[in-house]
Structure formats: structure tokens, C-alpha cells
Specification:
It is a single chain. It contains six helices and ten strands, in the order βαβααααββββββαββ. It is α+β, with helices and mostly antiparallel strands. The protein has a single domain (4-240), classed as 3-Layer(bba) Sandwich (Phenylalanyl-tRNA Synthetase, Chain B, domain 3). The strands form two sheets. It has a six-stranded mixed sheet with strand order 7-6-5-4-1-10. Strands 3-8-2-9 form a four-stranded antiparallel sheet. Helix 2 (37-56) packs across helix 4, helix 2 packs parallel to helix 5 and helix 5 runs antiparallel to helix 6 (205-220). The longest helix has 20 residues, at 37-56. The relative contact order is 0.27.
């Protein structure tokens, strides 16, 4: 038996972004397989087909969920079109005729759900996170070491940038643009915290969280629990036994 408790606070950014909602999921007892296996591969392929049908009929700029993130990025000073939400990058990949990334059973699962629901989803190894967590504005002294950068180079956030952070470090820059490598999951991860983020499309957040946790149980053998932070409940705790 185990108990995982994690806190999240989004209050700092709500005055400017009152429609922000985030589902925080805790997944325990994960078994992450480097080879996703035939069942997961088939499920991901089905979602790729769904997404391909959607993005072949319209431009990404016409998709409401992506429009909301573009506007939010612009609001805190991101002008370059090369900086897009993680969900938009996945949809663009499919639109260009490429497959979703194949990494392992955890990453493949949450990328597929992110693409299906057009919401950014990220994961961090709970053993590498120091709670509480927060979506907040960048502060002096924040540093950032991009996942996969070799050698790791500090690329700190700009003033006013929305970031995702724990008590000690950043977990993601530009809200949900790119992950810091210090909290990244791996095949050895046993417990993880995941976020499903939305601006608009609020009625779809809960189904996306349910979908995500169902996949984590099915393809990673996880125990899961989740809760939603929003303007009416900006500080939440997630616990599972």
C-alpha cells in the first residue's frame, strides 16, 4: 500500500488567465515499457488517424484549443511562431504526415491523449519533484535546463513568462512549451505527476483526464487519482492510496 499526496497552486496567474484549468493526475506503481506493445501501438495509430482527419480539413490556426494557447503565449510576450504549445506541436507533426513520437508506454500514452483532446499534457518523475507545484510567473533566479540539451545550458525564462515549477526549480518553460530535464521521467520511473491543461474547451478537461488515467492503468499498470484546479479552487491536493 502507498500514499502519494501532491499540492498545486495556480492562483498567481488567474487574474490574467481566469479560464485556465488544469487536471493534476498522480500515477503510482508504474511499469513503463520501452516497447509499447501491439495493443498500445494500435491504440496510438487509431488516434493518429483521428487527428489526421481533423488537421487535414483545416489549418491549426482554426482549431479553438490551439487558438487559445497562441493568444496566451502572445499575452505574456512570446512573439516567435516557433514557440507553440506542446499540443500544437503534436498536431503539426501529424499534419505533416509524421507519426506521434514513440518513446515508451508512458510518453506514448500521454502524447496520444494530448493529441486526441488537443490539450497540453506533461509528466514529471515524482521522485525528482519537490512539492508544492505551481503555475506562476517567472522569478529572478529561476533557471532552466532543457530536456535533451547536451551539454545542459541554463536558458532562464523571461520576465513575465508563465512557467510550471516545483518548490526548487522549473519543470517547464513558456507554460507548456518545453520540459526541464531535471524532473524528466524514464523507464525507471515508478511514480509520476501529470498535468492536463486547458484554456477554453472546459467541458472536455474532465473527459481528457479520465481518458489519460484509463490509458495509464491499461498500458502502464498504474494506480491513478486526479483533481482539477480552477478559478474556484486554485489550490488543490491530489492523493491516492
Amino acid at each position: 500500500m502507498f500514499r502519494l499526496i501532491l499540492s498545486l497552486d495556480i492562483s498567481e496567474i488567474l487574474e490574467r488567465f481566469p479560464d485556465f484549468r488544469v487536471a493534476v493526475a498522480v500515477a503510482g506503481d508504474l511499469t513503463i515499457r520501452p516497447d509499447a506493445g501491439p495493443a498500445l501501438k494500435s491504440a496510438v495509430a487509431a488516434i493518429e488517424a483521428e487527428v489526421a482527419a481533423l488537421v487535414s480539413a483545416r489549418s491549426l490556426a482554426e482549431i479553438g484549443e490551439l487558438q487559445a494557447w497562441r493568444a496566451a503565449y502572445k499575452a505574456f510576450g512570446v512573439k516567435k511562431t516557433s514557440y507553440r504549445s506542446s499540443a500544437e506541436r503534436l498536431l503539426k507533426q501529424v499534419q505533416q504526415g509524421r507519426s506521434l513520437p514513440r518513446i515508451n508506454s508512458l510518453v506514448d500514452s500521454y502524447n496520444a491523449i494530448s493529441a486526441r483532446h488537443r490539450m497540453p499534457i506533461g509528466a514529471d518523475d515524482l521522485a525528482k519533484v519537490a512539492g508544492p507545484l505551481a503555475f506562476r510567473y517567472a522569478r529572478p533566479g529561476d533557471d532552466f535546463f532543457a530536456l535533451g540539451a547536451k551539454p545542459p545550458v541554463d536558458d532562464p525564462p523571461k520576465p513575465g513568462e508563465v512557467v510550471y515549477a516545483d518548490a526548487e526549480k522549473l519543470l517547464c518553460r513558456r507554460w507548456n512549451w518545453y520540459q526541464d530535464g531535471r524532473s524528466a521521467t524514464s523507464a525507471a520511473t515508478r511514480d509520476a505527476v501529470l498535468t492536463v491543461q486547458c484554456l477554453g474547451g472546459v467541458d472536455q478537461l474532465e473527459p481528457a483526464a479520465e481518458d489519460l488515467c484509463a490509458w495509464l492503468r491499461e498500458y502502464c499498470g498504474a494506480r491513478t487519482a486526479w483533481a482539477v484546479a480552477h478559478a474556484g479552487a486554485p489550490r488543490i491536493d491530489v492523493a491516492t492510496v
